[in-house]
Amino acid sequence: MPGFLIFLTAFIALITICEHRSRAKFREKFPPISDEEFMANCRPGTNPEIALKVRRMISESLAVDYERVYPSSRFVEDLGAN
Predict the structure, then answer these.
(1) In terms of domains, do 39 and 74 share one?
(2) What is the pLDDT at residue 11?
(3) Which of 58, 67, 80, 82 has fewest C-beta within 10 Å?
(4) Structural domain containing residue 57
C-alpha cells in the first residue's frame, strides 16, 4: 500500500505540473485584450452588443478570463471546453 501512495502522489504532482504549463501557454498565447481590440478582430458588420454579450457568456461558461476570449478562440483547442 505505501508504494501505491507514493505512485499516487507522484501522479498528482505530474498532473499539477502539466496543468500549470498548459495555463502558462494559454496566458502567453492569449494576452488580455480590450473590448475595442476584440471588436477590431471581428468580421466587419459584427454587432458589438451581441459579440460582447457572447464573449461574456463564453467567459463565464468556460471559466476563462473575459479579456482572454478572442473572436478567433476555438472552444476545445483554446478554451478547454470538452
Answers:
(1) yes
(2) 59
(3) 82
(4) 32-82
Task: Count the domains in the chain.
Answer: 2
On whether the pTM is more than 0.90, the answer is no
Instruction: Compute the distance between CA of residue 2 and CA of residue 10 in angstroms, rounded to an integer.
Output: 12
Task: For residues 66 and 57, give the distance between their C-alpha atoms in angstroms, rounded to a whole number.
Answer: 9
Summarize pLDDT for 25-44 with one digit per residue, the tens: 878 888 999 999 999 999 99
Q: Both 41 and 51 in a single domain?
A: yes
Q: What is the DSSP string of 9-75?
A: HHHHHHHHHHHHHHHHHHHHHS----HHHHHHTSPTT--HHHHHHHHHHHHHHHT--GGG--TT--T
